[in-house]
Automatic annotation (TrEMBL):
Belongs to the MAGUK family. Residues 319-329 have a biased composition (Basic and acidic residues). CDD domains: PDZ_MPP3-MPP4-MPP7-like, SH3_MPP3. Keywords: Cell junction, Membrane, Repeat, SH3 domain. Its main location: other. GO terms for cellular component: adherens junction; membrane. Residues 6-60, 61-118 form the L27 domain. The gene is MPP3. It is found in: Cell junction, Adherens junction; Membrane. It holds the Pfam family PDZ. This is MAGUK p55 subfamily member 3.
Length: 329
């Protein structure tokens, strides 16, 4: 096996590892699976980006000036006022092009670190009906993407609670919303007497800054509990045809032999996964391995041994407690 140098990066290491995978009669399927995963272009691009960022951190470059646009405008004024020669005319034309001006604007934005989102101040008319320790005001920046959380109505208390946080979504990236949190207001609109689908519509229509008033759960979700497993799908799955899934819009459709990255197994019935190579960073719901095996076993048994009891809907095909989300269908 070739020897890597100390300067070899992750990209070269991954390429070398892929080239060394040889078919094995005892582990042919596993080797093919690893080769497919390591050969994904998205993984190669991520490795290259990682190396560029590490190189940037080691170099620690600092901008020479923080206002390149202002300097370019001053130079253009000097060139327009002075006698213009061929070189000066070419420089003036270059500085006037929109692409160069846009590049200088980006430079100033990065140099001045103005790329972080700016949140407006909290409104002054926030109700103080609850204790300060029990109410939390959460401000999120949400663009055209869904919030990445499902909600449901609690059967006992009637409260609207967060049922699930989808990995990779806006709510997950913020780290401010957890499973079990009670939702009271969305952008100043009370949700106590609204249906979950009405609340999801409000969330879906909200763009930019979104303010949530929530009562934190007694035990917050353990965000450090993160598991990533790659597996190859052995069947086709369409969440629109699954009566048991709690939220069809949050389901992840996939085809047989597609490689999936399981990012959360917190729920023993519904895992969260992403398709390898998919540009969508937000995960979707898929049936867990144990749940799918039990469901298939039940269907095989009832198909081969029909009985009066099998005429009833099996528990694996019955609609469960439904959740609502603002994901696009």
């Amino acid at each position: 096996m070739p020897v890597l140098s100390e300067d070899s990066g992750l990209h070269e290491t991954l390429a070398l590892l892929t080239s060394q995978l040889r078919p094995d009669s005892n582990h042919k399927e596993e080797m093919g699976f690893l080769r497919d995963v390591f050969s994904e272009k998205s993984l190669s691009y991520l490795m290259k980006i990682h190396e560029k960022l590490r190189y940037y951190e080691r170099q620690s470059p600092t901008p020479v000036l923080h206002s390149a646009v202002a300097l370019a405008e001053d130079v253009m004024e000097e060139l327009q006022a002075a006698s213009v020669h061929s070189d000066e005319r070419e420089l003036l034309q270059l500085l006037s092009t929109p692409h160069l001006r846009a590049m200088l604007m980006v430079h100033d934005t990065v140099a001045q670190k103005n790329f972080d989102p700016v949140l407006p101040p909290l409104p002054d008319n926030i109700d103080e009906d609850f204790d300060e320790e029990s109410v939390k005001i959460v401000r999120l920046v949400k663009n055209k993407e869904p919030l990445g959380a499902t909600i449901r109505r609690d059967e006992h208390s009637g409260a609207v609670v967060v049922a699930r946080i989808m990995r990779g979504g806006a709510a997950d990236r913020s780290g401010l919303v957890h499973v079990g949190d009670e939702l009271r207001e969305v952008n100043g609109i009370t949700v106590l007497h609204k249906r979950p689908d009405e609340i999801s519509q409000i969330l879906a229509q909200s763009q930019g800054s979104i303010t949530l008033k929530i009562i934190p759960a007694t035990q917050e979700e353990d965000r450090l509990k993160d598991s990533k497993v790659f597996m190859r799908a052995l069947f086709h799955y369409d969440p629109r045809e699954d009566r048991a899934i709690p939220c069809q819009e949050a389901g992840l459709p996939f085809q047989r032999r597609q490689v999936l990255e399981v990012v959360s197994q917190d729920d023993p019935t519904w895992w969260q996964a992403k398709r390898v190579g998919d540009t969508n960073l937000r995960a979707g719901l898929i049936p867990s391995k144990q749940f799918q095996e039990r469901r298939l076993s039940y269907r095989r048994a009832t198909g081969t041994l029909p009985s009066p009891q099998s005429l009833r809907k099996p528990p694996y095909d019955q609609p469960c407690d439904k959740e609502t989300c603002d994901c696009e269908g």
